[in-house]
Design goal:
The chain is an alpha+beta fold. It is built from 5 helices and 8 strands, in the order E-E-H-H-E-E-E-E-E-E-H-H-H. Strands 4-5-6-7 form a 4-stranded antiparallel beta sheet, with no helix packed on it. The chain has a two-stranded antiparallel sheet with strand order 1-2. The radius of gyration is 19 Å and the shape is elongated.
């Protein structure tokens, strides 16, 4: 069981339930994320979300800290030491809806042209509203289909 405390409200849910239903178990969970219980602070990643001071903050940078903790720089908050096991939220990187996948296939040639012209994967991810991991997975096939770089 994982104990969560927000706004003086105590409740317990299983780690498995947090994985499947993050919004029902934690009202601060950002949309399109899954809850992940981290046993050790070193497992935190840039881009994860952490509930701090009554709000959920995105991790901008991480750095080692004494006694096995990790210093996080949180968006809109500053530095914060992550020193104990806790739940964090991560974007769903492998779940792209089928309709979005079809749209990307339809736009693949355009995506390849933009990539060749200098658009980063991060920028293309923002434009097409899909995770960078999905684009990394699909791009090699699209590049081979629409020819090698000029």
């Amino acid at each position: 069981m994982v104990r969560r405390i927000h706004h003086d409200a105590h409740f317990q849910v299983s780690a498995d339930e947090l994985q499947r239903y993050p919004r029902t178990s934690d009202p601060l969970a950002p949309s399109d994320t899954v809850a992940v219980f981290l046993e050790t602070p070193k497992d935190i990643r840039e881009g994860d979300w952490v509930a701090v001071a009554g709000d959920t903050r995105r991790v901008e940078t991480t750095a080692p800290h004494s006694a096995g903790g990790t210093v996080l720089t949180l968006e809109g908050y500053g530095k914060w030491v992550f020193a104990a096991p806790r739940v964090v939220y991560r974007r769903r990187e492998d779940e792209v809806p089928e309709s979005t996948q079809r749209h990307l296939e339809w736009k693949a040639e355009q995506i390849v042209a933009q990539y060749r012209s200098g658009f980063s994967l991060a920028r293309l991810s923002e434009i097409y509203e899909v995770p960078v991991a999905h684009l990394k997975l699909r791009l090699p096939e699209w590049l081979s289909t629409y020819g090698a770089p000029e």
